[in-house]
Amino acid sequence: MVVGEILEERELIIIGGGPGGYSAAIRAAQLGMEVTLVEKGKPGGICLHHGCIPSKVLTQAASKFKDAKNLEEFGISVGEAEFSFERWQNKKKNVVDGLSKGVEGLLKANGVEVIQGTASFTSNDKIGIEQDEKFEAFRFENAIIATGSTPLVPEFLKELHERILSPYSVFQLEELPEHLVVYGSDYISLEIATSFRMLGSNVTLVLDDKKDTFEFDNAITKELTRVLKKNKIKLIKGSEVKELKTNENGVQLTVHSSGETITIEGSHFFYSVGHRPNLENVGIQFSDVTLNEEGFIEINNQCQTSVPSIFAIGDITAGPAFANKAAKQGKTAAECLAGIPSEHSLALIPTVVHTAPPIAAVGLTEEEAAEEGYHVKTGQFSMAGNGFASIIGKKDGVMKLVSDAETDRVLGFHVMSEGAIELIDKGVLAMEMVARDEDIMYPYYPHPSLNEGWLEASEALKEKAIHIPPAKKKKPVSTN
């Protein structure tokens, strides 16, 4: 900043217009604050334009494509289903453009000043904004950092290639991969692996970081592994990557797994191994904002950093890189700045995976509950016994409740089933209300419905489930 440069004054400046940034901006404006939002691209951020929304357009396309091939059993004949990447790209563009215009309209309607440019701190109360060749300096009363994150690149990946796909570039494909090698174990890897398999690609899923399993409750992991095998997705566990080669015809991944060296040849390679915070161009070093050991901004339950007037939200803070986390934190920060008591917690943030069937969970797994010292009790129900699952022809999956045997308080909800993303709402609300198993067991459930799985799982906690065969009791051993 040039000495003597004129500083413009702002009440609140928000850096980043993704789900967290624009949610914070609108909530702050609703509460009477004058808000300036700085975004180098279009409002909506990476989630809307390159991540969450495009990925769900893909998973929905894959699911509908699979369903279309099974319509015959309902007496419906529509001819052979075909998938077109070109038409899919048009659908994705229409959805993204529509939502983007919606966000822009909401910001305008709420009186939020939007500046397209790159913002960086020059001190604890000053920000510079660069727009092409123009530079402006601002002094702020308060600021919220919401610059998101960038996918990590595996260490063994030495150079980029058109056949190597990131969590963003995969949605720019123009043709279906013949054989997609997926490297990762997170929800993004699972969504990509199952979606492209349903669309017709051969898929090999290689778990990253030498993992031997997925980070779900054991019941979900067991069912997921079975479904992957059923759908002919090859799963390689506990592997260490030795080499990745690429050429104009495909990729070759060499891994060491279970004491042997395996070479996997495919047409494309996809990776998803975590994320890093976008802080390199924010000028954090010119402020007194504190970072943790992993490089994420440290915040309290009000999203306040070590500098009282600077808040941070979303992927640049510790925890999962979820859009709903960012949006919740954005509203929390705005409310605290307006003097309203508000705080956030990651304890009951649901994990959702748009596989087929989808996966959703909230709270503790059986293993985590045991590690925390609870006397664990579980109830589990296979969706093969659910009437509505049979009607719609989607009987894969399981529902599981984890509870404390001493208090009957429910500690975790876990589901892999058609409709799981909507079904987990019951678990989130129940745990927020500190529900006991009787609170899940008592209400009427619509029939037939997938929701009845929760009733069966809760009754299974007391060995009272109607649609689960009784466990076989071991005969006493004779001493004669």
Q: TL;DR?
A:
The protein is of the alpha/beta class and 480 residues long. It contains 12 helices and 22 strands. NAD(+) binds at residues 184-191, 274.
Q: Using DSSP, what is the number of strands?
A: 22
Q: What radius of gyration results from the CA coordinates? A: 25 Å
Note the beta-strand portion: 25-35%
* Chain-averaged pLDDT: 94
Helix content: 25-40%
- How many domains? 3
* Class of secondary structure makeup: alpha/beta
**Head-to-tail CA distance between termini:** 94 Å
| CATH-level-4 superfamily name of the largest domain | FAD/NAD(P)-binding domain
Q: Major sheet: size, sense and barrel closure?
A: 7 strands, mixed
Shape: globular
- Here the CATH topology of the largest domain equals FAD/NAD(P)-binding domain
The CATH class of the largest domain is identified as Alpha Beta
Q: Any guess at the CATH architecture of the largest domain?
A: 3-Layer(bba) Sandwich
Protein name: Dihydrolipoyl dehydrogenase
Disulfide bonds: 47-52
InterPro entries: Class-I_Pyr_Nuc-Dis_Oxidored, FAD/NAD-bd_sf, FAD/NAD-binding_dom, FAD/NAD-linked_Rdtase_dimer_sf, Lipoamide_DH, Pyr_nuc-diS_OxRdtase, Pyr_nucl-diS_OxRdtase_dimer, Pyr_OxRdtase_I_AS
Keywords: Disulfide bond, FAD, Flavoprotein, NAD, Nucleotide-binding, Oxidoreductase, Redox-active center
